[in-house]
Structure formats: C-alpha cells, structure tokens
Amino acid sequence: DRLKIRQAIKNLLLNAMEALGPRGGIITVAIESHDEHHRLTVSDTGPGFSPEQLESLLDSPVSTREGGSGLGLFITRHIAELHHGLLSLSNGETGGGEVTMSWSEV
After folding, report:
1. Angle of CA points 89, 92, 97, to nearest 5°
2. Under 8 Å CB-to-CB from 17, ≥6 apart: which residues?
3. DSSP line for 27-93
C-alpha cells in the first residue's frame, strides 16, 4: 500500500525535524532497494534517543514532546510490519537519532 508507506516516511521525516528543534541541524535520508525489499534510514543531528526511549518508543504511543500524541512511530512500526518489515531505533555513531524502516512488496 503505497499510501501507507508514504505516510510512514512522512512520519519519520516529521519526527526528525521535530528532534532538531528551533536550532536546526541536518537530516540525512538513505534508501536501499533490492528487488522488492527496501530499507529507509532517517538520521538527524538532534539529541538522539535516551536508553529508556530506545526500549519503549515502539511498544506503545509515547510522546517525547509536549502536546505530542506519540502515534507517529507507533503507526510507522505498524505500517512496516503490515508490509513484512520492521522499524528500529538507534543513536548514530556521532550522535543524533537514527530510525530504520524496512519493508517488502511481496
């Protein structure tokens, strides 16, 4: 479902923009495709994820910002799983957050 994949990518980009905050920063997007298998990685130069966030952000709708619903990553994980993929969070080697979504068209 291309619309759902598009929504998931939009969610990841919006989260990265919000992580940067008003001071700005850099967002890097990388995509790999092999046959019907795809992997998208969105990295930012924001503060990254705390150990607690790495453990809990994908399990239930939890927001790290005031007024947020926490649904963005939760829904994105669900979309990835519906497309035989997964969503993972990590911190980049030089700081900042990194979110990787994989999915398949088969």
Report:
1. 50
2. 27, 44
3. EEEEEEEETTEEEEEEEESS----HHHHHHTTTS---SSTT--SHHHHHHHHHHHHTT-EEEEEE-T
Residues 6+ away with beta carbon under 8 Å from 97: 16, 19, 43, 44, 46, 47, 48, 49, 89, 90, 91
pTM listed for this prediction: 0.86
Report the chain's terminal Cα–Cα distance, integer Å. Answer: 11
Top pLDDT among 65 and 7 is at 7
Per residue in 73-97, pLDDT (tens digit) is 889 999 999 999 999 999 988 889 9
More confident residue, 52 or 82: 82
The answer to whether the CB of 5 falls within 8 A of the CB of 98 is no
